[in-house]
From TrEMBL:
Membrane-crossing segments per the record: 9-33, 45-66, 75-94, 100-117
Highest taxon in the source lineage: Bacteria
InterPro entries xrefs: DoxX, UCP030066
Gene source species: Paenibacillus gansuensis
Topology in membrane: Multi-pass membrane protein
Keyword Thylakoid: no
Compartments, record wording: Membrane
Keywords carried by this UniProt record: Membrane, Transmembrane, Transmembrane helix
The keyword Transferase appears for this protein: no
Pfam families, alphabetized: DoxX_2 (PF13564)
Name the record gives this protein: DoxX family protein
């Protein structure tokens, strides 16, 4: 396989396990699943934040995978970066275990890889 083919495969794999995983998270947040509810309580955040973040997670995941929306993709990737880096920081500040802090960082690494590997057709063209 040539380099272009490998890059395309790597892009879709990292996108599936990184940004597209926000579909699962967004759904869990919007349905009030036990795990995110307990995490929000543990961290001291109001539960209504689950609805706000759940909607943004779903919209961001959709924005990354639909074609011909490069500016929207930039915003979605930025949102993912802030969400995941913020989640790691909040867990660290709450004194959570390293394994809990590392979880959002793993998804952040996948999201950064997806961003860097995205094809030219999914990039914002600067004038």
């Amino acid at each position: 396989m040539n380099q272009s083919r490998w890059r395309t495969i790597a892009y879709w794999v990292t996108t599936l396990f990184g940004p597209a995983s926000f579909i699962i998270g967004g759904t869990l947040f919007l349905t009030g699943a036990e795990q995110p509810v307990e995490q929000m309580k543990h961290l001291g955040f109001p539960l209504y934040l689950l609805t706000i973040l759940g909607v943004w997670k779903l919209l961001g995941a959709i924005a990354v995978v639909i074609p011909r929306t490069p500016l929207l993709k930039e915003w979605a990737y930025a949102g993912f970066f802030f969400h995941l880096s913020g989640a790691a920081a909040v867990h660290a500040l709450a004194g959570d275990a390293l394994s809990v802090i590392a979880q959002p960082l793993v998804f952040l690494a996948l999201t950064i890889a997806s961003y860097l590997l995205r094809p030219a057709s999914r990039r914002l063209k600067l004038q």
